[in-house]
Amino acid sequence: MSWFVLVLSGVLEAVWATALGRSDGLTRPVPTATFVVALVLSMVGLGYAMRTLPVGTSYAVWVGIGATLTVVVAMATGTESFSVLKALLLTGLVGCIVGLKLVH
C-alpha cells in the first residue's frame, strides 16, 4: 500500500508543480487552489509512505515521478520543447525509479 500511495503522491507532485507554473505567481485562483490542494495531498501521501519505506528511497521516487511527469506534461502541452535526448533521459530516470523499487 505504501508504494501505491507513494506513486500517487508523485503524480500529485506533477499536478502541483504544473499548477504552480500556471498560477502566474499565485494570482490566478483556480491554478492556485489546485496547487494548494495537490501540494497538501502530495505531502500527506509522501509522509504516509515514509512510515514504512526508507526516507531516501521514498523521496527519490517521489521526486523522480513528479519531475518526469511535469516535463512530459510540459512537452505534451507545448510549453516545453520535445527532443529525443530529453525522452531518452526521462526514460533513464524512470528506469532508475523502477530500479529503486526492485532493490527495496
TrEMBL record:
It is found in: Cell membrane. The chain crosses the membrane at residues 33-50, 59-78, 84-103. The keyword 4Fe-4S does not apply. It comes from the Bacteria. InterPro entries: EmrE-like (IPR037185), Small_drug/metabolite_transptr (IPR000390), Small_multidrug_res (IPR045324). Pfam families: Multi_Drug_Res. PANTHER family: GUANIDINIUM EXPORTER, SMR FAMILY PROTON-DEPENDENT DRUG EFFLUX TRANSPORTER SUGE. This is QacE family quaternary ammonium compound efflux SMR transporter. It comes from Nocardioides flavus. The lineage of its organism: Bacteria, Bacillati, Actinomycetota, Actinomycetes, Propionibacteriales.
